[in-house]
């Protein structure tokens, strides 16, 4: 499973993101985390992931 690393500051996160109240599932083919109900419901592209602190700076 891929580590969550902020693409802006490099901070590593130890928790798995959630969507629809459940942990998201890592998809190796797309290099993203997807909602357990499918990527149409929600996804996080790991190449563009930013931590909470970096999101506040925007």
Description:
- By secondary structure, the chain is mainly beta.
- It has one domain.
- The protein contains 1 helix and 7 strands, in the order βββββββα.
- β3 and β4 form a beta hairpin.
- The longest helix is centred in the last third of the chain and has 5 residues.
- The protein is globular and about 30 Å long.
Question: What's this, in brief?
Answer:
By secondary structure, the protein is mostly beta strands. The protein has one helix at 52-56, and strands spanning 4-5, 12-13, 18-19, 22-23, 25-27, 32-34, 43-45.
Give me the secondary-structure topology:
Layout (H helix, E strand, L loop, with lengths): L3 E2 L6 E2 L4 E2 L2 E2 L1 E3 L4 E3 L8 E3 L6 H5 L2
Antiparallel strand pairs: 1-2, 3-4, 5-6, 6-7
List keywords for this structure.
58 residues; mainly beta; three-stranded antiparallel β-sheet; two-stranded antiparallel sheet; 1 helix; 29% strand; globular
Count up the helices: 1
Tell me what portion of residues adopts beta-strand conformation.
Answer: 25-35%
Instruction: Tally the beta strands.
Output: 7
Overall mean pLDDT stands at 87
What overall geometry do the principal axes of the alpha carbons give? globular
Cα end-to-end separation:
29 Å
Sketch the topology as an H/E string, one letter per element.
EEEEEEEH
**Strand order in the sheet with the most strands:** 5-6-7
Largest sheet, strands/sense/barrel: 3 strands, antiparallel
Radius of gyration: 11 Å
Number of self-contained structural domains: 1
Unreliably modeled segments: none
Instruction: Give the class from helix and strand content and strand pairing.
Output: mainly beta
- Helical content (DSSP H or I, runs of 4+): under 10%
């Amino acid at each position: 499973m891929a580590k969550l690393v902020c693409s802006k500051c490099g901070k590593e996160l130890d928790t798995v993101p959630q969507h629809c109240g459940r942990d998201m599932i890592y998809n190796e083919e797309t290099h993203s985390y997807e909602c357990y109900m499918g990527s149409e419901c929600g996804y996080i592209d790991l190449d563009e992931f930013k931590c909470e602190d970096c999101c506040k700076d925007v």
